[in-house]
């Protein structure tokens, strides 16, 4: 059975706008354990589903897609953020 995770995207710290904040992303969870490659020593697995990320505008659309495909779903909402508003002069107190 395929297990998926639906995550609410937050604004990236390097962004000033809120273009993709609030969108929802469906990611597949890893089905195989990672193992070191004997030649390079890098970790990897044959599970390529973890490379797929589907973006939806609402949580309901993501849930409808997951139920239509028969996935087990874990929903991860975005952590609440609070802004600390201060003036530039407060840096020199």
UniProtKB/TrEMBL annotation:
Keyword Kinase: no
Keywords (A to Z) from UniProt: Electron transport, Membrane, Respiratory chain, Transit peptide, Transport
Matches recorded under Pfam families: NDUS4 (PF04800)
Main location (coarse class): membrane
InterPro entries: NADH_UbQ_FeS_4_mit-like, NDUFS4-like_sf
Region (Disordered): 1-24, 30-49
Domain of life where this protein originates: Bacteria
Keyword Transferase among UniProt keywords: no
Location of this chain's protein in the cell: Membrane
Leader sequence residues: none
Protein name: ETC complex I subunit
């Amino acid at each position: 059975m395929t297990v998926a995770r639906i995550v609410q995207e937050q604004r990236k710290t390097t962004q000033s706008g809120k273009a993709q904040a609030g969108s929802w992303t469906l990611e597949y969870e890893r089905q195989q354990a990672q193992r070191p490659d004997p030649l390079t020593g890098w970790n990897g697995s044959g599970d390529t589903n973890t490379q797929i990320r589907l973006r939806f505008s609402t949580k309901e659309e993501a849930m409808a897609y997951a139920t239509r495909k028969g996935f087990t779903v874990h929903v991860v909402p975005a952590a609440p953020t609070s802004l600390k508003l201060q003036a530039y002069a407060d840096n020199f107190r």
